[in-house]
Amino acid sequence: MYIMKKNTLIINGKQYEVSGGTFSIEGNKVMENGKVLTEVSEQPVTIHIHGDVKELTVQGTVHVHGDVKGNIEATGHTIIEGDVEGDVEANGSLFVQGDIEGDIETNGDMTIQGDIEGDVESEGNLTLHGDVEGDIEVGRQGVFHGDVQGNIESKHDVTVQGDVRGNVQAKHDVTIQGDLNGQATAGTRVQCQQVVINESPFADNPNE
Predict the structure, then answer these.
(1) Mean pLDDT (whole number) for 65-75
(2) CA nearest 106: which of 128, 131, 132, 137?
(3) Which of 76-80, 122-126, 204-208 has the lowest mean pLDDT?
(4) Which of 65-79, 105-119, 121-135 has the lowest mean pLDDT?
(5) Structural domain spans, the chain
(6) Residues with Cβ < 8 Å from 30, sequence gap 6 or more?
(7) Average predicted confidence (pLDDT) for the chain
(8) Range of lowest pLDDT (17-21, 132-136, 158-162)
(9) pTM of the predicted structure, to 2 decimals
(10) Neighbours of 105 (CB within 10 A)
(11) Contact assessment for residue 90 and residue 58, using Cβ atoms and an 8 Å cutoff
(12) DSSP assignment of the chain, as one string?
């Protein structure tokens, strides 16, 4: 059960004390749990939330200094300094400091510091520092510092420092510093530490 608590909400520099509920912006109205909190005339809207949030729907830029326990929809840049338990859709860039349990889609660059359980789709550059369980589509360059269990497809380069359990496809170069349990195809070059060919990419590991 999610327990709401008092948080600090800053909208275009003006501060409000709110509960950690569901926030949305509909036109010039800022809504909290379905009720109008305030109206803003200055555009674009920039929101800072200090504390945890249940859900976000924002036409503007949002910065959450806490966790989000629900879905996120934002038209501007999105920064989450905690974990996310839900799907994320952002038209601008996305930065998440914690883990994400849900699918992610963004039209801008994306940087995730934690682990991801869900599919990832980014039209811009993608940098993932943790492990990923899900399929990944990248519009530009993809850099993965952890392990990936899922397929990777990029319209530019793919660089994986960990292991990959899935297929990798890139328009230019593919570089995998760990093991690849799957197939890799690239328009120019494929470089891999070791390719595992004796098992299916998603077969159960009898040693686990």
Answers:
(1) 88
(2) 137
(3) 204-208
(4) 65-79
(5) 1-108
(6) 11, 23, 24, 36, 37, 38, 39, 40, 45, 47
(7) 84
(8) 17-21
(9) 0.79
(10) 18
(11) no
(12) -PPP-EEEEEETTEEEEEESSEEEEETTEEEETTEEEEE--SSSEEEEEES-BSEEEESEEEEEES-B-S-EEESS-EEESS-B-S-EEESS-EEESS-EES-EEESS-EEE-S-EES-EEESS-EEE-S-EES-EEESS-EEESS-EES-EEESS-EEESS-EES-EEESSEEEEEEEESS-EEESSEEEEEEE--SS-TTS--TT-
> Is the Cβ–Cβ distance between 104 and 95 less than 8 Å?
no
Instruction: Provide mean pLDDT across the span 10-28.
Output: 72
Structure tokens at 32: 């909290």
Q: Both tokens of residue 90?
A: 């952002």
Which amino acid does the sequence have at 143?
Answer: V
